Amino acid sequence: MRTLECIKAISTAVYVTCDHVVWAGGAGAVDKRSTLYKVCDKLSLMGWAAGSALMAAGHVPDLIAYTRALRDPLASDNKRDDDVDEWELREELEEKTVAAALDVASGLTQALFALSLLGATPLKGRQMQCVGLAMGIVGVMRQLVSVPLPPEKTGMGRMGRLPISPSMPMLR
Length: 172
Prior knowledge:
Order of helices and strands: HHHHH
Low-confidence stretches: 165-172
Number of strands: 0
Helix content: over 70%
């Protein structure tokens, strides 16, 4: 995992650095016909795709662990309705599972979009627009998972958070 994190950091650094040159080309400070601009444009997209794919890959083990914990028969069969502590723990685990799933989805949609911009995938036009829309929806959902409710609303949602998915029956 440490190697994965290092490669992800390098990919992200390449993306950010080269993207500054691409933005400078958009502003007219760098000639868009120059070799520097063309190389930085490709490296920026490659860094974005690699960093996003590695981000998704880094969250897959967490997603698998949380899903297994939710599907554990000992964790779900011996529950009682009056046992609030166990249900709160399960809700917290469900929240972590949703967050990990959204992180994986976010990384994969961003990688697909960057690869489409590179021309490495056959997506064009409306298909790319759909991927971009999915990328935006996943990004918004990632932010909503961690939004706390106002104090007077606490207890109405899941552990005082906005209810993205009050229960996840597909994981049980």
